Structures are given as C-alpha cells and as structure tokens.
Amino acid sequence: MLRAAGIGVGDEVVVPAFGNVELAEAVALVGALPVFADIDPDTYCLDASSVEAALTSRTAAVVAVHRFGRPADMRPLHGVGQRHGLLVLEQGESEMPYDETAQRRQRAAYLDGKLRGVRTPDWGEGHTYQQYVVRVPGNGRPDRDAFARAVRVRGVECRVPVKTPVHRMPGFRRCVSLPETERAADETLALPVDASLTKRDMQRIVSACNALGGLLQPAF
C-alpha cells in the first residue's frame, strides 16, 4: 500500500506503537520514517488527537490498525487527513466466518457478565473479539504478569498481546510520550474466547480469574 501510494525516502508515516513491529518495518522498508502516535485506551487503536500532534511538514500518511477485532474509529482520522492533505490507510485483521464471530461474541458476553476485578473490553460497534483483552488493574506489568501466571496454574491459557511497544524496541526506539500505549502494554491480557470452548471451559476461566479478584483493586 505504501509503495503504491508513492511513499518513500524523506516521508514520515504515523503509525501506532502498540502492536506488531512489522508495520514500522514496512514503513522503513520503503525508505520512510515511522512516527509513533498514542492509542485510545478503550479501542487500542490510534487516537486522532495524538496523530495530529505528531504531524510535521514531512508527514505523508497515517496507517490505522484495527486491533483485537475492534475496528478503529476512522472518522476523526479521516478528518485529520483531510485537514492536512494526508493519505489515511487501514490495516485490517483477517475476517472470521460469521458463525465463529457469533460464538466469540457469545463467549465474550458471558465473560463480560461474570468477570470481577479486571476491566473487560469495550464492546464497540462491530467488535468480533479476535482477542478478548482485559486489563489487570494495579501497579502495571508486575501485577499483570503475576495474574497471568496464577491463571495459567489454574489451567487457563492466556497471553500478553503486546509485550513491548515498538517505540521501545531496538531500531525504532524514540523519545516520545505515549502514556496510553505504555499503560496498555503493562496491563493487558488476552483470555480465550475460541468457538471450541465449552460452557465448562468458560466457567473455569471465570473461576480462575475471580479467585484472584480480591488481590486487585476494582477496575471501576
């Protein structure tokens, strides 16, 4: 997409740091400079105001990423693009069959109603729950990592969706303030909502997580 748009040496492309490094690598591959903007804490997608603050005279494009099955709010991003004459691109996630999406939403709704002591995802319009990402409140990464270990001991598979923001990685390290990105990297944990999970599996997930709820401060 970047090459087709004529993006190259001397250009800057605004991208999220919360996610995989491949996007920043793709920008660098065409000779442009990736510039990182912060995310919206509810959607984990680019925040339009942070994007606007990151613009310079060399900015040529913005690439929004739909994260965890939650679509980015493209309207304010397109507004930024129109005001500044920028190309706004989208990086989507692979689509799932309708039946699988419906089952994931059903399991996500069950977890929404049962989990205690963690912050459940914002539903949002069109959320497909490719990942069911909660936040473990407390003092950041040590609490989240301890929570994850304890849940795994109870037989529940879980994973940290973004271990290190791209702006903290070698080769892309930047002195930039991205507080929501760093907070999300420290607090988020993906719980299973696969269509293959049985009711007993879902109950096990809730039981494992809620057994630790007394150790945490409520999310709200």
UniProtKB/TrEMBL annotation:
Keywords: Aminotransferase, Transferase. GO terms for biological process: polysaccharide biosynthetic process. It comes from the Bacteria. One of its GO terms (molecular function) is pyridoxal phosphate binding. Transmembrane segments: none annotated. SUPFAM superfamilies: PLP-dependent transferases. The keyword Cytoplasm does not apply. The keyword Nucleotide-binding does not apply. This is DegT/DnrJ/EryC1/StrS aminotransferase. It comes from Streptomyces pactum.
